[in-house]
Design goal:
The chain is mainly beta. It has four helices and 48 strands. About 5% of the residues lie in helices and about 50% in strands.
């Protein structure tokens, strides 16, 4: 597992708790925000699909389909065994389960309806490898006597269905042993686990993970809230979210795939090629995460095909003006409170800014559809492999990079709104063949040491403090581009084909001043409103031909713009003033 970066600030601990209350408040989320809330970010934008021009990992070997059993909560009540926790003990009505005081162990195949309430109890499943077990939680409230309330030890297959309102928690009196990693989740399965149903489940984990599987963790329905001082959802082989409403508050990761529960951890694999594929797949439902660590961390792939995902990661104090310190392990949530309890009111303590990613993947990130909203204290999306956007809608705010890849970033479809970031897109190469990319407040819009290629779609940078585009080699063969920023000298694009690129410098224009490009007939071709002062621009489009002259205009009001001040073939403008006559050379 990676270490967290932190910055030490000199301030009182109470100030920390005030500034970061939304992260450290471990209460449950009340409800999931519907997708309609985010429509305002994407209204009036219609992306054009292009070809995927970056190499991505194939998905054919992954289990991305849900079986009928995983999606159906149906069962026969007449043949089910009932397990009732009440009066300080437990009672089994039927076959296939044994009661021992407060604890119950399921030992055979069948359907088990579990209800009632108990403290210091354990529901376990220890069946044979041929037994299919169906657990139905029906208005169950269970507090485990240690780190675990429900433990699935063995079975052929396990399905957990939610009915009514259910809650699981672990005791706050003890702390699970660091050597006993298997007892480190409130709901723990040593095999594949699927959750569905029309009911709800609230999970509270004290120094434990919330829901964890040593195999594949799948959710196809249900309303699930997890509040934990460790990770919210864990699947060592995979986490698959195909439906339901999930809300997570976690001190560590919100959703985590990778070897973290067994004797062999992910970090123990010295040979990268021998590490097992462990992915996170989102194809429906809604997921809301507020986490101190990464909101979603996949030790191989992250793939999103549909659904609504809202991520808030990290702990930060606004505008920390201190130098970054060497990497340290993130301070424990409980350690911070121990410091606060023992400190004098007037004493000065250290506060921590934790830089965490919205989505972090050790292999590829592939966004194929759905709505993704990210507010991250570090990278919004970070991939050690390729980062590909081939559909969907992204709205991003990040302290550091918006889209970041150790390899290539490719955008071929979808809408990407990077409202605020230090660098909008950072990668070894960037290829835009379709879709719609908008970079708002930033130091640099797109930065790559290799090639920046634009062959389709729309690329907009609305007022970078520095270079709007920073690349090794730039090639434009199609698409539309307006990138505004500040630079005394910028690299020119390599001339190819008929479509030209305008690179121009001019007197600094103020914030909110739109820049307009007009042809020799005073017909407006492109316009973009800037979010900051700017003094240079890259401009290209289908109507921009190499060798032709165009007029730049600035200021005024432009009609027909989208929510971010961009228009292609604007209807009209008022009080715009001529700025310069430019020629498309590149």
């Amino acid at each position: 597992m990676k270490k967290y970066k932190w910055i030490a600030l000199l301030m009182l601990v109470p100030l920390l708790l005030t500034s970061c209350a939304d992260i450290f408040d471990m209460g449950f989320l009340d409800e999931i925000t519907p997708a309609d809330q985010y429509n305002k970010h994407f209204e009036g934008i219609s992306p054009v699909r292009g070809e995927i021009r970056v190499e991505t990992v194939g998905l054919s070997n992954l289990n991305l389909e849900y079986t009928e059993r995983e999606q159906s909560p149906a069962y026969e009540k007449d043949n089910a065994t009932r397990i009732v926790f009440a009066n300080g003990g437990s009672t089994v009505y039927g076959r296939g389960a044994d009661s021992a005081g407060k604890d119950v162990t399921v030992t055979a195949a069948g359907t088990y309806i579990v209800s009632g309430s108990a403290d210091g109890a354990l529901l376990a499943v220890s069946a044979s490898s041929d037994d299919a077990v169906h657990l139905v939680l029906s208005d169950l409230s269970l507090t485990g006597k240690g780190g675990t309330a429900i433990e699935i030890r063995s079975a052929g297959a396990v399905l957990l269905t939610l009915e009514g309102e259910n809650s699981l928690s672990n005791s706050t009196e003890g702390k699970p042993s660091a050597m006993d990693k298997l007892n480190d989740a409130v709901l723990l399965s040593r095999m594949d686990l699927c959750i569905n149903g029309s009911g709800s489940l609230s999970v509270f984990g004290n120094r434990t993970h919330g829901i964890a599987s040593m195999g594949v963790l799948t959710v196809t329905a249900g309303k699930i809230s997890v509040s934990t001082t460790k990770a919210g959802l864990v699947g060592e082989r995979a986490v698959r979210l195909g439906g339901g409403e999930i809300a997570i508050r976690a001190e560590e990761e919100g959703v985590l795939s990778g070897a973290v529960l067994g004797d062999t951890l992910w970090s123990d694999y010295e040979n990268v090629d021998k590490k097992p594929v462990s992915y996170v797949y989102v194809s429906g439902g809604s997921l809301t995460v507020k986490s101190t660590g990464d909101s979603i961390r996949a030790e191989s792939l992250f793939v999103m095909k549909d659904g609504v995902v809202d991520l808030t990661s990290g702990v930060r104090v606004d505008d920390p003006e201190v130098e970054e310190q060497p990497e340290e392990t993130m301070p424990s949530f409980w350690d911070i409170f121990e410091i606060e309890e023992n400190a004098q009111a007037a004493s000065v303590e250290r506060a921590f800014v934790v830089y965490s990613d919205g989505i972090c993947a050790a292999s590829d990130i592939q966004i194929l559809g759905g709505t993704l909203v990210v507010d991250a204290s570090n990278h919004a999306l970070y991939s050690e492999g390729t980062l590909c956007v081939d559909g969907g809608r992204l709205y991003v705010r990040a302290v550091h990079e918006g889209l970041c890849s150790d390899a290539a970033v490719g955008i071929s479809d979808g809408i990407v709104i990077l409202e605020k970031s230090r660098i909008g897109v950072l990668a070894k190469s960037v290829d835009i063949s379709g879709g719609h990319l908008y970079v708002g407040a930033t130091n640099s819009g797109v930065k790559t040491s290799g090639a920046f290629r634009l062959s389709g779609g729309v690329c907009l940078v609305a007022g970078a403090k520095e270079l709007p585009l920073d690349f090794g080699v730039g090639v434009v063969t199609g698409g539309t581009m307006m990138a505004l920023g500040n630079a005394k000298r910028a690299r020119e694009f390599f001339p190819t084909g008929k479509q030209g690129v305008i690179l121009c410098y001019f007197k600094e224009q103020g914030e909110k001043y739109p820049l307009l490009l007009c042809d020799n007939e005073d017909r407006m071709l492109l316009s973009l409103e800037s979010v900051a002062a700017y003094s240079c621009a890259y401009i290209s489009g289908a109507d921009v031909s190499r060798g032709n002259a165009y007029t730049l205009m600035s200021g005024g009001f432009v009609a027909g713009v989208d929510p971010y001040g961009f228009a292609m073939g604007a209807e009209s403008s008022v009080a715009s003033e001529p700025l310069a006559v430019v020629t498309a050379n590149s």
